[in-house]
Specification:
With 215 residues, this protein is α+β, with helices and mostly antiparallel strands. It has helices at residues 2-30, 210-213, and strands spanning 33-44, 75-89, 100-108, 115-120, 126-134, 142-156, 159-170, 182-192. It folds into two domains: 1-30; 32-213, no CATH class. The protein has a seven-stranded mixed β-barrel with strand order 1-2-3-5-6-7-8. The termini are far apart.
Amino acid sequence: MRYLKLLLLVLAGFIVIPVGLFLITRIWAAIDRQDRFFVDAAELGETGFYSVPHAESEEDFLFSEKDLPVFAHRISAGHGTVFGFRWFSNGNVIAIDDEGYEKLSLWFKQGVSEGKSHFDLSNGEVVAVYTKGGSAWPRSACFGSITNGAVDVERRDDVIYVDISGGFIPSIRADSEWCKSFPLRIEYRAERLELSEITPWLGRQSDHVYDETYR
């Protein structure tokens, strides 16, 4: 009887441990992820894309494969400082293709110096762009600029504290329930990255758009 109990315990371990690990893995995967960073000597590479409206109606709310909203968050070598705020959700663990993302990028054309600085979003010295959408559907993302607000930053060596407050203006003219204007306020702590450390998810140009919409 003693050996039978030991055998049952061993068998139970072979069942319980893998199931437990599987559940832990699924729960971990379901947790939303955030990335907060900045890059010096850099700029946003697709600034012209978000400066004009791109659709006249909700039926036109599909972008071409060569000019997708998420591309506006691509970071390249240049002049200034680029901040990135990236959010990713794996969605429901039992659903397919329901992953989602949000990206906020700020380009300070003159860079950010040590100490505290205040920037007005209405005078063009800062470019602020925001995109949200389903990772599997990059052609139908909601996209636009942050205007009529301000950004306060405090730089301490390789860390910058960012406080942005403004209004999101979508780049489409359609009165869409999915893509509306709204007030936006985000505060976060950004850590310095080198341009070589920027992944496609963070802003490096990739061969496939899914590398930029999935984390």
